[in-house]
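thread: overnight batch results

M.L. [08:02]
morning all. the overnight job finished for the chain we discussed friday. pasting input first so we're all looking at the same thing
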Amino acid sequence: MALALVVGSLSVVEAQELPRFTRLSEGVFVYEHVDPTKRGVTANNLIVATPDGVLVADGQATPENTRELLAAIATVTSQPIRYVVVGSEHGDHRGGDSAFPASATFIAHPFSKANLGRQAAAPARRANAPAVVVPTETVSERRVITLGGTEIDILFLGRSHTGGDLEVYLPRAKVLFMSEVFSRRIFPSMANGFPSEWVAALKRAEQLDADVWVPAHCAIDSPLVFTPDEEHSYRQALERVITEGRRLHDGRVPVDDAASRADFGPFAAWTRAADNAAGAITRVYMELDGQLTGGRD
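M.L. [08:03]
and the structure it wrote out:
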């Protein structure tokens, strides 16, 4: 397993270097693994290791990947996993949750807890599918956990990628884990998102005193950089999608034709643009037509 530092590194992340375990500050790490559910991106975790236990933000897509995450954590601490924060309820972050220790407390937004509960109870689930872990604790707005003397703020800044997105903020280290509210150099995946509220959530995050911004996903072919400038670029990509969606909607362009007629500027070259553009534009149309529901509580 490659150990890597640092915020601002200019080395290109190659798939063969992954998984990667990166120290951000004392007891604070980022873990990156190739996301097996899609091409060209990583799935990332924040790890906060303290003398009184460990908090992990988000999970991995498979039990195998989660076991590799746990092995990486074991190289820096023997303390137990106390908390797992469900930043995103989607399968690329939840599929491996059954590999976490049964003693870990899972924390989610109420909207995400309810969705995971429905998934766990779904009669159509495959007989051999990994178990869905339903969180036992929730955060609707803000919760502060002090673990081993480290303040950890769990935040809900608004409906964004899923409707129940949670972020993790470490004020002393000035580290902000954004889960799927921020993905680096990946065209916005908005098929379940809330476009305008998502931008507003990012603007709220920008008011926090953070030097290190950790995304849920990074493009494998882009440099390893966790700076505020990268978050600003991602917000600009969202804003460009919304602007183009509104222009096409106002021009009465049919939604099925809109993505092919949109001008995404430099963001059209971002990873997974061809996969995500149509769903993103559709979601903008739905917002303009008052068709978005879900989230909040």
